[in-house]
Amino acid sequence: MKNFIIRTITGVIFVAAVVASFLRPEAMVLLFSVVTGLTVWEFTGLVNERPGVTVNRFISTVAAVYFFFAMTYFCSDLYGGAAKSVVFIPYLVTIIYLLVAELYLKQEDPIEDWAYTMLSQMYIALPFSLLNVLAFTATPEGTVSFNTLLPLSVFVFLWVNDSGAYCIGSLLGRHKLFPRISPGKSWEGSIGGALFVIAAAWAVSYFLDGVMLTTIEWIGLGLVVVVFGTWGDLVESLFKRTLGIKDSGSILPGHGGMLDRFDSSLLAIPAAVVYLYSLSLF
Question: What pTM was computed for the model?
């Protein structure tokens, strides 16, 4: 009972913080730059426990946070022109340094160091940074506005999917979705979660009355989030199973670490960006 109360309180605070952050661009940038840094720091700490692996945690974390801020600057200003891309130069220099440094460090397995260093950027820094693509959109007048709906909807759909999958899976779950990696997940739960998200997407479309996306497009976004969010969860489960750990950390009481809390979003955010850009092409 005590663990349930702690988990509930942490969950409420977490949801409130994420929702509130999308009310102001400064709050979103501040919160998710911190989340990016903490998640990369957690990830690099975990992989550094593997034999022969020595990833530079500090520089990898700083690089990830800088990349997030660079993406914020790039996405939030239409008028910087081509020159604004110069903001990515320090990040590229840092990545080059992390690659070249292995020549002089004489580590036991530099290939693994390179692999885990790049994975921290591609798996964590890039997806979180793509929130800026969802959050800052061009208006018909040619200016950039802060968009609360799109990035927040990704997280809302993830939460609805998790809740629906848990409820339906607990009641009706019989057929394992991926027993080798996550024995607790069932096909029934996954389908139930998807149905909950479809209902949530329809409700969003109804109350917004066709703003930004049509009903079908909102439902499509919801299903994209469901599929890739589930894969994101499974990817992190495989990561933890490979390392032989239950939780990625303990920073969130009752919920584990940052990777445990944001695992689904690490694939759902990039997938949502690809989906929304695909809509604009057709």
Answer: 0.93
